[in-house]
Specification:
There is one protein chain. Helix content is 48%, strand content 17%. The protein is of the alpha/beta class. β2, α2 and β3 form a beta-alpha-beta unit. α5 crosses α11, α8 runs parallel beside α11 and α10 packs across α11. It is globular and about 65 Å long.
């Protein structure tokens, strides 16, 4: 199948406020996909109804929009349903709440390999969104976020798809299995998706708690990302041990993270972000341990 024939997949849940931005960005791609397959997990805010209105709009530019609704489908389940219902060998994945740059698909298609790791940058408007944006980094070559990635359907089949037992961290485990299966990864820094930040500090901390929980449920694996998580955990345990003997050592992570925050962004956002970063790490570590306790093997 030609490399230019690409199925774009996406899962949605109550994205009425951001759906038009996402769909418009896909409509205006310089390289048009053959089809877009969207799975709705049971939206109650009008997302599903508005999605149907986009079918005729895409039809005018020769792109088929397939929509599937499955109540209660989590992200992994939604992605698997979307891939199963796609007709192309090449699958490009994006998330709700995102917006693809016009050449996103073209840049993904311009790289070789079995898995192409795209890039993403933050969309931030209010103060706390800009604080979060300080620490947004693109995912690693072998651990791409499924909000900006392209992969072979045959590779997806080879590893059994996304792990549907995970609420989050599903793409991390999926990537690890792809790597273990010998799939070739390549990087496409110029294939950019813009990603909306959480609107409040509480939602930001909850986000990383959920990330940690998903990684805990997935378990540590012998991959670059798995080793990074192990290093974070060892650092946390080391700090806890040191604080029992030297309570003042608890100030060290705040000092280091503040320096790092100002290095990333030498302004008020970097300063506040640096002071808050240890709490984000703590939320992640707590989530990881909850994930270990609830892991189903």
């Amino acid at each position: 199948m030609a490399r230019s024939e690409i199925s774009v997949i996406c899962t949605l849940m109550n994205e009425a406020g951001t759906l038009d931005i996402l769909m418009s960005s896909l409509l205006n791609q310089t390289l048009k996909p053959k089809e877009i397959v969207v799975v709705d997990g049971g939206s109650t805010d009008g997302t599903w109804e508005r999605l149907q209105e986009w079918k005729d709009i895409f039809k005018k530019v020769g792109v088929k929009l397939k929509t599937i609704r499955e109540e209660g489908a989590n992200i992994a389940r939604g992605r698997n349903i979307a891939v199963k219902n796609s007709s192309c060998e090449w699958i490009a994945s994006i998330d709700g709440g995102c917006m693809a740059k016009r050449d996103w698909l073209e840049k993904l298609a311009g790289h070789g390999g079995d898995v192409v790791a795209g890039n993403f940058i933050p969309l931030a408007e209010n103060f706390f969104e800009k604080v979060q944006a300080v620490f947004v980094k693109r995912s690693g070559t072998k651990n791409p976020s499924s909000r900006s990635v392209m992969f072979r359907k045959s590779c997806w089949e080879k590893v059994g798809g996304y792990p549907e037992n995970l609420y989050t961290g599903e793409d991390t485990l999926f990537n690890a299995r792809l790597e273990e299966a010998g799939c070739e990864f390549q990087k496409a820094d110029d294939a950019v998706v813009m990603w909306r930040m959480r609107s409040s500090l509480g939602k930001w901390l909850k986000q990383f708690f959920i990330y940690g929980k998903g990684d805990g449920e997935a378990g540590l694996r012998n991959t670059a990302y798995g080793k990074k998580v192990a290093a974070v955990l060892l650092g946390f345990y080391g700090l806890v041990a040191a604080s029992l003997l030297f309570p003042g050592s608890l100030a060290l992570p705040f000092a280091l993270s503040t320096i790092y925050g100002l290095y990333r962004s030498p302004d008020i956002y970097g300063l506040v972000g640096g002071l808050l970063l240890p709490f984000r790490l703590l939320a992640y570590v707590l989530g990881f341990h909850v994930g270990l306790l609830t892991r189903k093997s």
